[in-house]
Amino acid sequence: xxxxxxxxxxxxxxxxxxxxxxxxxxxxxxxxxxxxxxxxxxxxxxxxxxxxxxxxxxxxxxxxxxxxxxxxxxxxxxxxxxxxxxxxxxxxxxxxxxxxxxxxxxxxxxxxxxxxxxxxxxxxxxxxxxxxxxxxxxxxxxxxxxxxxxxxxxxxxxxxxxxxxxxxxxxxxxxxxxxxxxxxxxxxxxxxxxxxxxxxxxxxxxxxxxxxxxxxxxxxxxxxxxxxxxxxxxxxxxxxxxxxxxxxxxxxxxxxxxxxxxxxxxxxxxxxxxxxxxxxxxxxxxxxxxxxxxxxxxxxxxxxxxxxxxxxxxxxxxxxxxxxxxxxxxxxxxxxxxxxxxxxxxxxxxxxxxxxxxxxxxxxxxxxxxxxxxxxxxxxxxxxxxxxxxxxx
Length: 393
Known about the structure:
Blueprint: H1 6-23, H2 26-62, H3 68-99, H4 105-108, H5 111-114, H6 130-147, H7 150-188, H8 192-225, H9 229-235, H10 237-246, H11 253-262, H12 267-280, H13 283-299, H14 306-319, H15 329-333, H16 335-340, H17 346-357, H18 360-392
Helix pairs in contact: 1-7, 2-6, 2-7, 3-8, 3-13, 3-14, 3-18, 7-17, 8-9, 8-13, 8-18, 10-11, 10-18, 11-12, 11-18, 12-18, 13-17, 13-18
């Protein structure tokens, strides 16, 4: 099963859950519901630790290295990420009232009330709350940057490795079982048709938005460097398809770096920007998470207000720093925001995970393909600075 990759396993889990949910007696569904309940408790326990593990070293590392070039790259990446989220929100606010008109939770009732409960539950309270974890991450991360606390940065990197190991060795492998239980329970409750309808429509919209943001990124990069954006995008195709298979920005770095240099990018810029963007450039994942959470809010009858979604998108760009280096890590890093900023309950979080991971490879492919555009933009600014230095000299 491991050789299949995460995406095929998620699809198999969905099909298995639907099939068993149609024929299995209640006690079978309740066994899976028990597992889901325990898994959710463990996930709730891990959320603050995931936030600490990803954000502290992410912020701490941003203060090291290439000075102005680092700051410029981080600023461009953050603006790109936020604009991607706003694009997804605008598309959702415009399209969902008609696209998902038949999926209103007002018509279906409260789905959570129709689900079967597990036989028992194990309470696993988190060490501290989500907001405490976020604030602590920012304080320590900025403190590491300001004081150049190398020893503490090293400890946070090791803690990140531990958290990453928990995600890759425990949470991710158990997700197919968790998702099978979710769809089994929803099938038994008569909710699966609604979920599949939402999933297919939102999935198509997400892919279209991925293409739009890549065209915008390469349109800007091509205009600045007087290059054909479509030709530049064609050059990056190997990186896109490599990321589809690996589901990891970090694992795709060699291919992304090779294709970025083929764009004519300065070698020093490419060597610096591509590995950095592999951990902080998340436009594809941001589009996916924003679209999926907007869909879930909509089908639960909650308004897609700018006052709710803009702060969420702004925080998403910070919270997911370094998450793309872990397959499926993007949605894991954002779990705390689902609770604290959107008010998601366990059922809504589980559904978000399922919908996100089902297309995680496409979001990762968009992330790494956009890295080439970011490198070309930084390439333009470096050339401009070099010309200014020669003129001043």
